[in-house]
Amino acid sequence: LLFVNIILSYVRSNRMMNALYFDDKMLDRNWLFLTTNAEKMIKRQRGLFTVLSINFCKYNHIKSCVGAGYADDELLKMFRIVKKHLGRKDLIARFDDENIGVVFKRDLSSDIEKVVSSILNELGDDVYIGAYVFDRKNTREKMTDVGIEDFYYYAELARKNLNESSPYRVAYFDNSMREEYVWVSKVET
Question: How far apart are CA 72 and CA 26, in angstroms?
């Protein structure tokens, strides 16, 4: 009887965790799952990590013209396309209505560019992609100052530098973007 209770408790716990980590719009893992597991992945491994902010730029237009249900269906299609270009251990989740976050590790920058290019080649003019790439050389480094939310923000900042008049669909974050953002914030204040 004790053994059965332990098993039932484990099953209930798994169901609660699945419910906690489930995104009903994407029918997949949610942002909480991505952030929790990305932090663990980064702490355990070395290599080049990439955080992507992918914006479905037509979402609001579709939503206002055709309706939220159709826009969500199109976002789900885009989500599935992005996911098929990722590896089994890579993380993907919807950040908000029109933005998807991705975290993955590769050993070479050329491998990162292949992933981004394959996504961009299939989705074309439907997306803008911001990328933040960082090298986790030493697994003993601590991530106390910054976390995955900060890294996503950097990718988002790079993406926001793109607009309809830009000939590019992808932008990689660099420190000059952060400095410019800080300067603009100071001027606005």
Answer: 8
- Which tokens belong to 13? 């716990």
Question: Could you read off the pLDDT of 30-45 as tens digits, one per residue?
Answer: 899 999 999 999 888 8
**What would you report as the CA-atom Rg of the chain, rounded to the nearest whole angstrom?**
19
- Cβ neighbours of residue 94 closer than 8 Å, sequence gap 6 or more: 23, 25, 26, 30, 31, 75, 79, 100, 101
Q: Residue 142 pLDDT > 60, yes or no? A: no
Other CB atoms within 10 A of residue 106 CB: 18
Q: Could you report the per-residue pLDDT of 91-102, keeping only the tens digit for each?
A: 999 998 899 999
CA pair distance 90, 38, nearest whole angstrom:
9
pLDDT for residue 78: 93
In the DSSP assignment, the letter for residue 21 is T
Q: What letter does residue 86 receive in the DSSP assignment?
A: S
Alpha helices in 45-102 (DSSP H): 59-65, 68-84
pTM beyond cutoff 0.85: no
Q: Which residues pair with 48 in a beta bridge?
A: 106, 135
Helix (H, G, I), strand (E, B) or coil at 23: strand
Q: Are 31 and 108 in contact (CB under 8 A)?
A: no
